[in-house]
Design brief:
Chain A has about 550 residues and is mostly helical. Helix content of chain A is about 75%, strand content about 0%. In chain A, helix 5 (about 90-120) packs antiparallel against helix 7 (about 135-165) and helix 7 (about 135-165) runs antiparallel to helix 11. A six-stranded mixed sheet of chain B has the order 6-7-8-3-9-10, sandwiched between helices. Chain B has a four-stranded antiparallel sheet with strand order 2-1-4-5, with helices on one face. A four-stranded antiparallel sheet of chain B has the order 12-13-11-14, with helices on one face. The chains are: A mainly alpha (about 550), B alpha/beta (about 325).
């Protein structure tokens, strides 16, 4: 009996200690931290507590510490005795850079993914959703927790990085660029991880999203590792970093891209976990547009850096933007047009203002209009830049053909997305979110293959060539434009006409789906009238 | 309608709530109120629409038509205000790894915006009320089902909401844990909280609910205090009479009475089905005494909630 009573006492003491540890800060420092923790995200507080107990974090952290120690000893031994008179900073920094990059751009996003996936899979997401935390605070807290890990790794490496500076050969700017770019990459990949995890549903095995994350993180980390290592060993990079304002002009849009995609991923994740009381399409569309402007500013920065229009840079930017809008547009095509009564009450009062801001509301037709107008505006900005830039127009015809390729890409977006939208208006699919993507992929495949087959048939299956009808093959026609094929120019009106017809048909449907202002809210207690037909007047987000 | 004529405003009001999932009507025209300090039992077969209704009330879903108010705030227009006034205990209970009870409650106290002393005292009070203070340092994954349910109830209570929505809280609990949970719910109602609770354990529900709503295929078939429903659905009652010594003439006397059926006599006990109302039942007892039968005991067996449930519902699913 005595031992049982002692055990009980010990258990009680442990419980009291556990409560005090969390609830009553024993020291002044703890009290200060507790007070401070009241001001930060509850998700960050919880995730930090969990991470500190997590085996994955503890193992990775200790592994980084051990490898840092090994690299420091090896590096110094390898460079002895030259370390006293040679610039060995870049050599040592290379190792620390890899040791910082791998955990922050692979392990940290993976931890963020697991944290969000567990929330979705174990049903804690619902419990969190009904707390007073907004979806944005939830995903933001997850990202902050991921960034805390990144900064812990950085803090571990800081003495070693100071050592590399003392070993000469590295400027402060170079160290800053290497570390800051890695941090931005870590933040962007962690945000993407949170978004991918938010697409998982309870009970589903998240194989595809996990695979997608790895396919994003590993190539990005390896690419930046290659660039970073070559930058550390490149005198040009170092001199640019030290001297050139143009270098910073170029770096700012690069970081801006990372941050814009980070915010896009976070807003999309917040929309995934949020309840459809808000208009979640608005921030997603805003950040999609923001990524486009950052890409365009990167092009402008390249013009300023090289003091001439770079057709290769602009072509790449236009292709990237076309692909981005194609994917985003295909996912928007079957977007439910649902806008809750609450969100509708915040619509503009004037009909003109409502039409002008309709692209910010969810819905396939308006999503389509938003996508094609956005990419069209990007093409216009490139053309305006060509005409107005202070370095003059290019003397060769390369840029003219880049603009023709831009018109082609715009027409293809208008045509294929519009055609898919018109088809989707007649097709019901059990997974509306991906049905748009599937239809667009199918149409693109048909549009790519059919012109080749027709050409082969007309040429007796001997060969095929670019004919006017091949203008409907997106990749082929754009490639031919870059190769300055005159057939593209002559057959362009055909594509423009087709695209215009499809655009008008979708716009006609979009005009029908303008959200109307709901009647002012009345007391539900007084509401005795029966609905005409709740099914017909349904506001269900599942009514595509 | 529960509490419609009371002077206090209802803590929960559901008005003409509809929810369609494509062609499936999960909830159709559900209307009821729950007053502060009342426990409302929400019963129905699986797939009847209980959880969908509760999720709409908890702002986890939006109605297709109609609205629901929690403490006067609309779940459609002011979900943030509803969340502050409402605690929800879902059927499925997810937990966080690497956390103990006190850390779990501390996190949700922060998530509900409690800071400083308010937060620490809320956690302490919740641990005390749910009886989790004895296992505060225990990892959640090591808790029994009953303790997890207590923790989940504690989480729903951490911000001291005026309204509690409990979806199958007694599911999978042993009898002792069920009784303790019932006592906690009654204690919460005594503190003035409005509690909406769904359960398949109807005897438990009958003991604590001030009113019940019976739902099937998304439609509310009956709603109100249990006695009112019993009266409105009463078609017959089973009456048991015990006499002093066996009375051979009793059976034939009873069979000669109107509204009496299925008479069975076993020694000094006679049982029969009576289809009349309460007034007619009193007249029957008076007639028995007037006929000089030495009646020791008359017992009318009322319909239990289970009987009512079986009578009202058809077992149809959608």
């Amino acid at each position: 009996m005595t031992s049982i009573s002692q055990d009980d006492q010990q258990l009680d003491q442990r419980n009291v200690a556990a409560m005090d540890r969390i609830l009553e800060a024993p020291s002044r420092w703890d009290r200060l931290m507790a007070k401070w923790s009241d001001r930060i995200s509850p998700i960050l507080v919880r995730e930090t507590r969990q991470q500190l107990k997590s085996r994955q974090f503890v193992i990775t952290f200790w592994a980084v510490l051990i490898f840092v120690l090994i690299w420091t000893i090896y590096g110094i031994a390898e460079k002895m005795p030259a370390i006293y008179y040679e610039s060995t900073g870049p050599f040592m920094m290379g190792g620390y850079f890899v040791l910082f990059l791998l955990p922050t751009c692979i392990s940290v996003p993976l931890a963020a993914y697991q944290s969000m996936a567990a929330e979705m899979d174990e049903g804690t997401g619902d419990v969190l959703a009904i707390s007073t935390l907004t979806p944005w605070q939830i995903v933001g807290g997850k990202l902050l927790a991921a960034m805390l890990q990144t900064f812990l790794y950085l803090a571990t490496l800081t003495p070693c990085i100071v050592l590399t500076y003392l070993l000469r050969g590295l400027s402060i700017e170079t160290i800053f660029v290497i570390l800051f770019t890695t941090i931005v990459l870590s933040a962007a990949t962690s945000a993407v991880a949170i978004f991918l995890a938010s697409t998982n549903r309870q009970g589903q095995r998240p194989v595809i999203s996990m695979l997608g994350l790895m396919l994003i993180c590993i190539p990005l980390a390896l690419t930046w590792m290659g660039w970073g290592m070559s930058a550390l060993n490149s005198s040009n990079f170092l001199s640019m970093g030290n001297e050139s304002v143009r270098f910073w002009l170029f770096m700012l849009p690069i970081w801006g891209l990372g941050l814009a995609y980070m915010f896009l991923a976070l807003n999309t994740a917040a929309a995934q976990i949020g309840i459809l009381a808000e208009n979640y399409a608005k921030p997603i569309r805003f950040w999609l547009l923001a990524t486009q402007w950052v890409w365009l500013s990167l092009g402008i920065a390249s013009t300023i850096s090289s003091q001439s229009l770079q057709s290769e840079v602009w072509s790449t930017i236009l292709i990237v933007l076309a692909c981005q809008w194609l994917v985003a547009g295909s996912l928007m095509l079957k977007e439910p047009q649902f806008l809750s009564l609450r969100a509708r009450r915040s619509l503009a009062r004037s009909p003109l203002q409502r039409i002008a801001s309709a692209w910010l509301n969810p819905g396939g037709s308006w999503g389509y209009v938003f996508v094609v107008v956005s990419f069209g505006s990007a093409a216009l900005v490139v053309e305006a830049h060509r005409r107005l830039n202070p370095f003059g127009r290019p003397t060769d015809t390369k840029f003219d053909w880049t603009m023709i390729a831009a018109i082609l890409m715009t027409c293809h977006l208008v045509f294929y997305l519009g055609l898919a939208r018109l088809l989707l208006l007649r097709i019901q699919h059990r997974n509306p979110k991906i049905s748009g993507f599937l239809i667009v992929t199918l149409l693109l495949a048909l549009g790519s293959v059919l012109p080749i087959i027709i050409s082969l048939v007309l040429n007796g299956f001997n060969n095929y060539s670019f004919e006017p009808y091949s203008i409907f093959n997106p990749m082929w026609s754009v490639l031919e434009a870059f190769q300055e094929n005159s057939v593209v120019l002559s057959s362009l009106p055909l594509l423009i006409l087709a695209a215009f017809a499809v655009f008008l048909a979708v716009l006609r449907n979009a005009a029908k789906t303008l959200h109307t202002l709901p009647a002012p809210p009345t007391s539900v207690l007084g509401s005795k009238s029966s609905p005409d037909d709740p099914r017909r007047g349904g506001e269900s987000p599942f009514d595509g | 309608m529960v509490g419609l004529h009371s002077s206090d405003p209802p803590a929960m009001e559901l008005r003409r709530l509809h929810r369609f999932f494509g062609p499936t009507a999960a909830v159709q025209d559900v209307t009821f109120d729950v007053m502060p300090g009342h426990v409302f039992g929400f019963i129905g077969p699986n797939g009847a629409g209980k959880t969908t209704t509760m999720r709409i009330l908890a702002t986890l879903d939006t109605p297709t038509y109609g609205d629901a108010m929690v403490q006067g705030h609309s779940v459609v227009n002011d979900p943030e205000l509803v969340r502050q006034a409402m605690g929800f205990m879902p059927d499925g209970f997810g937990t966080y790894t690497n956390m103990d009870c006190v850390e779990y409650l501390d996190f949700f106290a922060r998530a509900y915006g409690l800071v400083g002393r308010d937060r620490t005292s809320a956690v302490r009070q919740t641990l005390g009320f749910t009886g989790l203070d004895k296992i505060a340092s225990k990892p959640i994954r090591g808790l029994s089902k009953g303790m997890r349910q207590r923790l989940c109830l504690g989480r729903a209570l951490i911000h001291d909401p005026a309204v509690l929505i409990l979806d199958e809280p007694a599911n999978g609990l042993d009898p002792r844990a069920r009784i303790e949970l019932r006592q906690m719910i009654q204690a919460l109602a005594a503190r003035g909280k409005a509690v909406l609770v769904s359960s398949h354990i109807l005897t438990e529900l009958a003991e604590m609910a001030n009113a019940v709503g019976i739902i099937e295929r998304g439609r509310l078939l009956a709603v109100g205090p249990l006695e009112d429903i019993q009266n409105s659905f009463r078609r017959h009652s089973k009456i048991r009479i015990r006499t002093h010594q066996p009375q051979p003439a009793l059976a034939s006397w009873l069979q000669g009475r109107p509204q009496v059926d299925q008479v069975e006599v076993d020694k000094d006990v006679a049982t029969f089905v009576f289809t009349g109302d309460a007034h007619e039942q009193a007249q029957l007892v008076r007639a028995l005494c007037d006929a000089n039968f030495p009646v020791l005991e008359v017992m009318s067996q009322e319909q239990s909630l289970e009987d009512l449930f079986m009578q009202i519902t058809t077992g149809a699913v959608q």
